[in-house]
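Re: that backbone. Tokens:
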């Protein structure tokens, strides 16, 4: 089953939005298969955002991600990579639709509270960067057939 990496950034943690964000993924029907709280080092933040290293905001972005606790998670479900991004909303909260996490809960691009992998390859790379294989848990939820049907 498809998996994606989702992180609640230091602003989301400080603003008390952990439960709110987890709840949106959980209520949708996605399954939490890994979670931890961690303060990433600057070096680690640079690895996570390596594809943005030429952007002018790269340094500030990495300083920010490493400025406090982050909730790192892996969520599983059909279409979770793409739909997770839909739940999150556009990068700039000024352009995110109401009903999305950033649309409802954030105001500026530099403090947009959540990260989500942008495709299958990045999802795989980010899960590997943030988690050891044994930190991922495979399990059944008894009500799964009410989300996916019998097959
Ligand atoms: P992530 O899920 O965090 O990766 O966001 P994204 O995929 O929606 O956007 P992208 O990967 O392009 O940018 C990563 C992060 O850099 C964003 O979430 C923002 O926090 C930050 N960022 C992107 N564009 C800007 C910008 O123009 N200015 C500033 N200050 N930050 C930006
Ligand atoms: Mg991104």
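Recovered sequence:
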């Amino acid at each position: 089953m498809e998996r994606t990496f989702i992180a609640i950034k230091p602003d989301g943690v400080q603003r008390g939005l952990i439960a709110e964000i987890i709840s949106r993924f959980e209520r949708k029907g996605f399954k939490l298969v890994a979670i931890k709280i961690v303060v990433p080092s600057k070096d680690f933040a640079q690895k996570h955002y390596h594809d943005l290293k030429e952007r002018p905001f790269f340094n500030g972005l990495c300083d920010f991600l490493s400025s406090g606790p982050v909730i790192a998670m892996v969520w599983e479900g059909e279409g979770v990579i793409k739909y997770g991004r839909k739940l999150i909303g556009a990068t700039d909260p000024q352009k995110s639709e109401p009903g999305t996490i950033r649309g409802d809960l954030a105001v500026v691009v530099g403090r947009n509270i959540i990260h989500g992998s942008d495709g299958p390859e990045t999802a795989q790379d980010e899960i590997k960067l943030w988690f050891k294989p044994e930190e991922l848990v495979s399990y059944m939820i008894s009500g799964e057939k009410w989300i996916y049907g019998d097959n």
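The longest helix spans residues 18-28. Residues 118 surround magnesium ion (ligand 2) (CB under 6 Å).
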